[in-house]
Amino acid sequence: MTVRFSPVKSPASFKRAAEWALPYWTRGEAGRETPQDLFRVLYYGWLVAFTLKVLGSAWDVSWHFRWLRDDLAPPHLLNSAGTALVVALVMIHGYTGYGVDKAALRLIQWGTGIFLVAVPLDLINHRVNGLDITSWSPSHIMLYAGTFFMIAGVLRGWFMGAPPGRERTVVLGAFFAFFLENVHFPEQHQEYGILSLGAWDNGVVYAEKILLQFAADQMGRPVDRTMVTGFTLPVPDYLYPVYAVVAGLSVLVAARMLIGRFGAATLVAASYVGFRTLIWPMLTYTGFPPSALPFFLVVGALLVDLAFLVRIPAVRAVLGTAVVTVGAYGALTAQNAVMGPVYGALKGQRELMGSPPLVLVSAGWAGLGLLVAWAAIEWFARGRRPREVPAPPPATTPTVTAPATP
Predict the structure, then answer these.
(1) Which residues contact 189 (CB under 8 A, 6 or more apart)?
(2) How many domains does the chain have?
(3) Which residues of 47-65 are buried (b: 16+ CB within 10 A; e: fewer)?
(4) Which of 73-77, 183-187, 244-248, 271-275 has the lowest mean pLDDT?
(5) pLDDT tens, residue by residue, 274-320
(6) What is the pTM of this model?
(7) Could you give the CA distance from residue 94 to residue 120 in angstroms, rounded to a whole number?
(8) Which domain range does residue 318 map to?
């Protein structure tokens, strides 16, 4: 796939936009030559789509810890708006072949397909099984998996087609931040759950009565602490730290590898955690439950960046895994040290620090998983660099030779 450079156009009205876009609406194979202005419009469209989906998903978890589930809840509608834009972009890429190579197109199509299949399955699951609040249910995991492949395809398309420069780096980092958000999303159940449980212990209840009673009836228990614990922390305690280290930090390793600059992993993690920090007061001060924030991801990301100062990939993977695992668990331990009944003492939470329960003995499994993932990323990404757009040959003036004198 190559990108042809041309002046960027800025349609000032719908009519001009249509006149600009219609000539591009032609059937083509993936990898066809893509004008620069069209390439940028498509990928900025992806940024808008992912932004809508992230805003909806960020609101969604908090919503489900307060209200009884509703298919047409505002967070679902906001997420659906992003999904509609995703479907439109997939159709454009698939029909025209612009902006993607074959591999990127297949990833985007398969990811979108998995996501769209998971939506009705999730609705059926809720109809059959009731509340199913856990983020770790099979239908929810299908949603994350579909989004995973979708963003992976978009990352590849931008990585392979964008010309070198600051814009390419910044947008690549933004896509990785969306990637990290999707990977870490199921962990928010425990991040909201631990503070909701702390609130219960202090006599503050975030969830409405009908939601608690519905969950209690589903568990066959009265509304007591055992029921609330099952509602807020329904998965084993070791899952949160192991998944955070293996899955979350693997995304940051890939980000540092592909962006290729020191500090890339830290900026990606800081962007995600910063977003969570900014929306925290917007949610809590409008009456929604608070969540613990994964500040340890920034610590882990900084250690990933430092590990890449080692030049030998195999040594970097082994040494980096050891340092990052210890550092991430250390940061988690620090957050746990200030976690307790103080969370939930007042609605709105006065402390930002805290994390779900930490099982330190799981560090070995987390380190082993990260080592395997890190080595796989190093092997896969080795030698894969963005294609340089060849510069046109310099114009030359033909040399006229005078005919020889007979």
Answers:
(1) 61, 133, 134, 135, 136, 234, 235
(2) 2
(3) eebbebbbbbbbbbbbbbb
(4) 73-77
(5) 999 998 888 888 778 888 889 899 999 999 999 999 888 888 899 89
(6) 0.85
(7) 23
(8) 187-196+234-385
